[in-house]
Amino acid sequence: MNQAARPALQITYDGLRPQQISEKWAAEAGGFEAYVFDGAGLAEEAGWQALRAGLRTVSALGVSELTCHFPTENADWVNDDHAYHMLLRFCDAADAAGARGVVLHANQFVQQEDWLRHDLSGTRGKVVERLAELDARLAGSRLWIGVENLPVIGAEGTDYDPVFVRPDDYLPLHALGSSRIGATWDICHWAVTYATDRAVAQLQRRPPEDDALALPTVPVKHIHFSSYTGLALPFTAGRCHEGVPPQDGDPDQEVLAAMVRAALAASDGQARVVLEVQEEDYENRVNCWRTRDWLLGRALPAAARSVGTDIRPAAGADTRVEGRRP
Questions:
Q1: Exposure of 316 by Cβ count < 10 A (0-12 exposed, 13-18 middle, 19+ buried)?
Q2: What confidence tier does 268 reach under pLDDT thresholds 50, 70, 90?
Q3: Residues facing residue 67 across a β-bridge
Q4: Rounded distance between C-alpha atoms, residue 70 and residue 67, angstroms
Q5: Mean pLDDT of 247-266
Q6: I need a labelling partner for 241 at 20 to 30 A (CA). Which of 68, 96, 161, 278 fits?
Q7: CA-CA distances (angstroms) from residue 54 to 49, 61, 67, 139, 274?
Q8: pLDDT above 50: residue 208
Q9: What letter does residue 165 receive in the DSSP assignment?
Q10: Taking a C-beta distance cutoff of 8 angstroms, is the pair 105, 48 a contact?
């Protein structure tokens, strides 16, 4: 992949706070993803006005790479008709703004105390049925829908959003045969799942079943990228921190780079990479630029590297040296 063939890199901004849109990023780096975190923010017309204002700002900057991320809180579009109609309106707003697609979580949260008796297969069936309805509703629209994979357990180890976690979870979507509906493959989430599965397999004295470079059989429409520190497990005080620049994260950087290249290859170069990294000040980005530099230097060049599939840093390795802030 030469310099000209490198995909555009996007960053997220709070879809209801247009002041987070970076003119410097628009001019020098790529595009944006408007992420509305909580459905409650769209309960009043003022929220929709703020969303549209941000999308107009992006358009005025001449940015061609725009996607929108539907809320993950208070937004059960599968079981709540009001939330489903909010999703339809959200898609309409994205389409009108010229967005390429909409990122969607299943939003089917299960608390720890309910997990062992939860009917996961039945829940996944309901999600797929609603997605088929959404696909039909969007007939004639150019939008794609990228259903995002979530980590195997929540960041605090107390809840789950379990419908789409591993590549095989997408098989019912594959059966829909939709050209519109595919995967938003979140590298950080998959890295968390992969590392957690390896840890559990080790404790159970069996080989791990996951392949670090495995991908869903549905089209990879979109890619989210960051690293993480820490892992969460049930009944422990551990916490997983997502949105970490790869230079500062726990996973092996070469494995992360290989995951990005594999996802891009599976998309035939059509997917874009969104940097979902946390910042101290979202109006003065620092970690996004560090992550961009890492991607351009480690993940996006054509030269492939030979990597193993152990996502942990090598013994004694300092993966935090490159790009470390003082």
A1: exposed
A2: confident
A3: 33, 101
A4: 10
A5: 96
A6: 68
A7: 9, 11, 12, 26, 17
A8: yes
A9: -
A10: no
